[in-house]
Design a protein that fits this description.
alpha/beta, Rossmann fold, GMP Synthetase, Chain A, domain 3, eight-stranded mixed sheet, five-stranded mixed sheet, 26 strands, about 30% helix, globular
Length: about 550
């Protein structure tokens, strides 16, 4: 395997974007966060349900949480599992865990008991911190002694007097809290104990583990990607240096980051939460982006949004909502699309409504996450995932590990300071996915242009082989989603006695009158025979992850 000595993308970097980043001056991610607390004490750090918390307050609250964890006598490097949607408690607990010198285990708040149990066991977490709305998920395993301590918070707990009303509505009017009962410490009680105890700043290095970030399980059972302080720190600085040309005209004005994607997911954690704090930005927290009606009302009140990270399904739901035409975002500087492929039809509508194109990027849990991204000055949706960010090398390799020519599909392999050292307690898997030269094998099929722009073709795992021909689901989905009457579409391989596999399409209708015969006829006009779906299934809704990524593996289980 050759190191990519050409790096053809470097000559296309915007003026002012460095080829390499520098982490000098930081001994951990905590240094970076504390720098923001010192630089912007009076700025609003978080706005949630109309309540604001300043950087100075976030500094104190996270320090109190850290101090509480230090009273528990946990071993060095202990794991703290955090299960919240986007509420201030998530940021307080996440920052507090890092400041105490422990490791954050992000838990998807939509997990079932089985999934939560797997993650607690696999990570060996000592403490679980969660919202009372999800306490019932832990109920069944509460007496197994999986963790030493459980800290439970309520929705309104950090929102001042308004929080009392929010809790009243959540508990008694909307009845959002299923019954639960087990010994625990209340979140505010933990903060109070921490405040009384006082905080001791531990010695941290760039090699300490900051996060165990569990992969979405797209390739079987969910694995913990070990992300060191240096991995996350590097990625924050990589994204910052990439976006700076678009932001440099606003040195004094505070940037407003929309945090609609759950920050327990790596894309939102780095590109919204941590980057936002690095820039002294205001984080606008959206607790439930799935409530599209509520989300649109929220957007109508916040014309000040500058940075809007999202995924295709979120953009799709917004642009197809009749009320979205009334949303005005005059201060929008950058829309970043990640987490999954953005479809052209969705991107074009977004650009039409907001005047800002979607700059698509690409990353993985294992790469903290950003690997490639389009420049913030992109004029239109390109369909590509852009270029590798500073200090990052990307190779496109064949199955034998040899580099393929430009324009030829192969596996995307990544080397850079943001790449994890390995999977938690899984040396064999680490060896399988990380080459001796330190390149992470992504499992994604892509092509690179001679200019260094990368385009995703599909997941290696999702590729369908029909009579020996390779079919990439993304391509078929893109074509079918352009058909009038189709709202959403996903494609999988279906076993076939003679052909090995055939293409099966799952469709959510936009138009109730759409028929199987119409879809088949449309595909006949648009695609060669082996790519065409032989089976069509109409479903009410697509199975999705907590960030809205369509889960093809669930469709395979149907």
């Amino acid at each position: 395997m050759q190191m990519n000595t050409q790096k053809p993308w470097l000559k296309n970097y915007l003026e002012g974007v460095p080829h390499e980043i520098d982490l000098a001056g930081y001994s951990s991610l905590v240094d970076l966060m504390e720098e923001s607390f010192e630089s912007y004490p009076n700025r609003v750090a978080i706005e949630s349900m109309g309540h604001r918390i300043s950087y100075a307050q976030l500094d104190i609250l996270s320090k109190d949480f850290a101090a509480y964890l230090q009273t528990l006598g946990l071993a060095s490097g202990a794991r703290i599992a955090i299960m919240f949607p986007n509420v201030p408690q998530y940021l307080i607990a996440m920052l507090g865990t890092l400041r105490a010198g422990f490791t954050v285990v992000n838990v998807n708040p939509l997990y079932t008991s089985r999934e939560l149990e797997h993650q607690l066991q696999d990570s060996g977490a000592s403490v679980l911190v969660l919202l009372e709305n999800f306490a019932y998920v832990y109920q069944g395993m509460a007496n197994q002694g999986l963790v030493k301590k459980v800290i439970v918070s309520s929705l309104g707990e950090t929102l001042g007097p308004k929080g009392v009303i929010i809790n009243l509505i959540a508990r008694h009017i909307k009845k959002l809290i299923p019954h639960w009962s087990f010994p625990c410490v209340k979140f505010n009680q933990a903060l109070k104990i921490g405040f009384g105890h006082g905080f001791t700043r531990p010695h941290l290095s760039l090699e300490n583990i900051a996060f165990l970030q569990y992969t979405g399980g797209t390739t079987g059972i969910s694995k913990g990607a070990v992300l060191l302080h240096r991995n996350i720190l590097a990625n924050i600085i990589q994204i910052e240096s990439w976006l700076d040309p678009a932001l440099k005209n606003r040195p004094q004005q505070q940037l407003v980051f929309l945090c609609a994607l759950p920050m327990t997911h790596i894309f939102a954690l780095t590109a919204c939460g941590l980057l936002g704090m690095r820039k002294g930005g205001k984080l606008l927290l959206v607790t439930n982006p799935r409530d599209i009606n509520g989300f649109i009302k929220f957007l109508m009140k916040h014309a000040d949004i500058n940075i809007f990270p999202g995924v295709n399904t979120l953009f799709h739901a917004l642009v197809h909502h009749p009320e979205f035409k009334q949303v005005k975002l005059p201060n929008l500087l950058v829309t970043i699309g990640g987490g999954m492929a953005v479809l052209k039809k969705t991107a074009d509508l977004w650009h039409q409504f907001t005047g800002v194109p979607i700059a698509q990027g690409y990353g993985l849990s294992e790469t903290s996450p950003v690997v490639c991204v389009n420049t913030p000055f992109v004029k239109e949706f390109t369909g590509s995932i852009g270029m590798p960010v500073p200090s990052t090398d990307v190779l496109i390799l064949d199955d034998e590990g040899a580099e393929v020519p430009f324009g030829t599909p192969g596996e995307i392999c990544i080397k850079g300071p943001q790449v994890m050292p390995g999977y938690w307690n899984k040396p064999e898997e680490t060896e399988q996915f990380i080459t001796p030269e330190g390149y992470f094998k992504s499992g994604d099929i892509g092509i690179m242009s001679p200019e260094g722009y990368v385009q995703i073709v599909d997941r290696k795992k999702d590729m369908i082989v029909v009579s020996g021909f390779k079919v990439f689901p993304n391509e078929i989905e893109e074509v079918i989603s352009l058909m009038p009457g189709v709202r959403e579409c996903a494609v999988i391989g279906f076993p076939h006695r003679k052909l090995g596999e055939i293409v099966k399409a799952y469709i959510v209708k936009e138009n109730a009158g759409l028929t199987e015969a119409q879809v088949i006829q449309y595909c006949k006009e648009q695609m060669t025979s082996y790519k065409r779906p032989r089976k069509i299934a109409f479903i009410e809704e697509m199975p999705k992850s907590n960030v809205g990524k369509i889960l093809r593996r669930h469709l395979r289980d149907l």
